[in-house]
Amino acid sequence: MPAAPALFEQLEKNLKTEGPELVKRIKGLVVFDVDGTQWALDLREGSGSVTKGKPEEKADLTLTISDANFAQLVMGKLNPQQPAGPSRTPPCPAPLILIKAFLLRKLKINGSMGLALKLQPILDAAAPKAKL
Amino acid sequence: MALRTLVTGSDMCSAGGDGAGPSNAVGALVNQLLGGAAKTQEQLRDLPVHHAPPQLHQVPLTPEAAAMAAAAGSRAMVLPGLPQGAVGPGTLDALLGGAPRMAGPPGADVSGMVAEFEQMQRAAGQVPFGPQPPGSGPMLAAAPPAVAHNLRAFFSSAGARTGAPQPLAPLAPGALSVADQCRVRDRSTILARQLFSEQGQGFADAQVARLLESLSVDPRQLPGGLAHVHDEAWHGIWQQRQQAGPLVAADVAAAQHAAALEAVWREQQQQAARPWQMPHVPSTGWADEFAQKGWADEFEQQQQQQQQKQQPAGPQSWAEEFTHGEGEKWAGEFEAAAAETAAAARRSAGPGEAMAATRRMVEVLGADADPKMRNSQFLQFLSKMSRGELLLEEGGLREVDPAAAAAARQWADEFDERQQQQQQRSAGGTAWADDFARQQQAPCAQQQGQRAAGGDWVDEFARGVADLDIGGDAAQEDLDAAWAAIGSGAVPLAGAADWVREFGGDEAGAVGAAPEEWDALYADAQRGAGAAASAAARGREYAFTDPNPFLGDPQALAKGKDLFRRGLLTEAALALEAEVRAQPGNSEAWRLLGTVHAENDDDQQAIAAMGRALGADPSDLGVLLSLGVSHTNELDQAEAVTHLSRWLAAHPSYAAAAAAAGPPPESSQVLSHTLRTFKAAAAAHRGDSELLIATGVLQHLGRDYDGAIASFRAALDLAPGDYSLWNKLGATLANHSHSGEAISAYQRALDLKPNYMRAWTNMGVAYANVGDYTRSAAFYARALSLNPGADHVWGYLRTSLACAGQTDMLAAADRRDLAALQAGLPL
């Protein structure tokens, strides 16, 4: 089982509380293509929604990424392959992780770059969360 | 030869490279900025003006003067007696130096060359007073202001291109060393020929002569042989490259080439600083001579030779690769992205936001320790964005690179093809799903008819499931899509599970198919369906596990309780399910089942079971509190508040307080109102850990984590043996970014209840939060050994393994090989 479904599930849960705010910030249809599986993140109105599969409408932004890189993106850990050494790079601060992933060619951005730079809250909302 | 050629590599190469691979933002940016002769000024404006200390801003930063402002910037940073700018020369050097070192994208070469070009320009304005011994490091001496002024004027006339030349202030003779004069001469010439390429070489040389005159540089007194030194170096490098054999990896070659170019440049720099070692050949009419045997010309010759030779490993091949392979793709991608950005910035008046964001990025990127990120070109791009200077022309940017478009088309075709194959492969499943969806949407009467034909349907379903390769991703995708289609259907579904039961109830009228078999098929299908299916079925009916060995066992409840006590949660759930299937009204069994699921980190099932328990006993305080907790975990705020309010109202001690508080004044204040009521009750009734827990849950829900932590700690003082309370404290700490403290709280919970699967999972989350991904994965693996059915934890496990770079374990996770995972990830 890839990592993405669990992460999108968490994101979907978070939309219930953070959705309206994310919609206000992003106002767009974002598609994640994770290893060929598409996840449509509709943040255009209401509190947004996450659906698996290609959306019918044209996405404002499509992010193509591998499952492992998506996992690292969500966890804020996307550093170049560095051997374990004394200078372990700390997790990249937001929203640099997106740029970094883009520059390291781990993330393909198709569509609005400006929108892509606003996605950090989405990644945060997809991270595993502790349960009471 | 246009400047673009110098910067981006040759534009005269034939096709080469495999075209695969991602794009290069930097290369594209350069392309964009150097799109035409008119864009040259933009490129000049790109220079790191932004690093300049404050006094620089006295220099009017007209586009024409930007080049010199940049040069002055690097110079002014080291002016003696003046405070250094925020960015020291070392930083700037590191930034610029970082670019050629950038390994990876073939475009790195381009940025390398750009960096060289920048250095060239900087050096032109950074002329020191006297010669320096080689290896003495950066030349820190400042040039007379007149040099900067004259160079600025020189370039501003380049910006005007046709305008009248600006007057150049004379500079006292002897202010510049011979080497510096050489450098000014050579670089000005090269630059001028690029800038004035439209006016012709003669014009360019005339401009340079004018400049040199103003700087009291007499070209006739200068050595003319510098060029050959460079040529030798270039020869050597290229020879080397040619002997290096075919490319192993384009990236490696590109990086090496960038390094080689850098080396050449450094050598050139050193040579320039050692005039006494150079053959001093007095010459007259240096401009002509230079034009004849200047290195710029030879450089072109070299390039042409290279082209004829078509050496695979030579720089030419690199250039080809860049131009015809990945470069264009990157370029297209980046251009499209940049166009979108610019357009978005304009249309959404978001420029403020975008600018603020980019400004922050520039700050952090500038300090980023990763050499790959210290890419001056990209930083400049961002800093331009942050200054709102990025006004890219829409028409030019809308161009979609043909290579990129082709790649996209190819991808789309591939995707379609694969989809079709999948559809063919699992036609049965899809057809069934379609049928199912249609049936659900059909009017009631039709549904009755369909149900009468239940036998056919069962056969069809069985066939569909048999055809499906449940384990295969392809089939899974189709099934998922089908489920999603069902879930998004306009018809209010009673829920798939409900429908199953309905069908099961009708089974007397239907033919064959034992309900157990059917249930098993359904469960299989559901497992395969993944997230979409669970989303569709969320918050609805309880989903039973089949087959269940406890079915029909009269001792199921007792066994379930015993198993729960012994910490065998998954087995306990089976026994309790058997009990509630036999006795659907047994609220105790439902409640315990809900508790088991909560401890097994499955809040959806917990909510479903607790819902049934509540149906049997609407005032069960434990059930109401559990529902409040599980809904909080699912982030269903309204549901959580409702159940916790009901808990307070149903509690004999607090019913009066709840009644006195009354309903919330308006719906938006439900949470705060409820919380106030709880706090008032807690103030009046000390010593009730349950009330403190409920208050803490509400506070957690309202993201008052400090308050929640205080409430849970107070509750723990009263009930230190409550393992789920330790877990609640830990989870609140973790969600409040105190994962380190959370770990010790979880440890307390696990000391009290070693098989508390939720706490093991939370441990994994906490270790992931503190960046210890291997340990995180170990805890997830342990949690999964307790409840292998927790799909989301499998996803988290993969997440942590991916972050830890544990490839072997990723493969084990794919196989769901818990033995291998636990062996490979010891705790």
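The first helix of chain B runs from residue 3 to 8.
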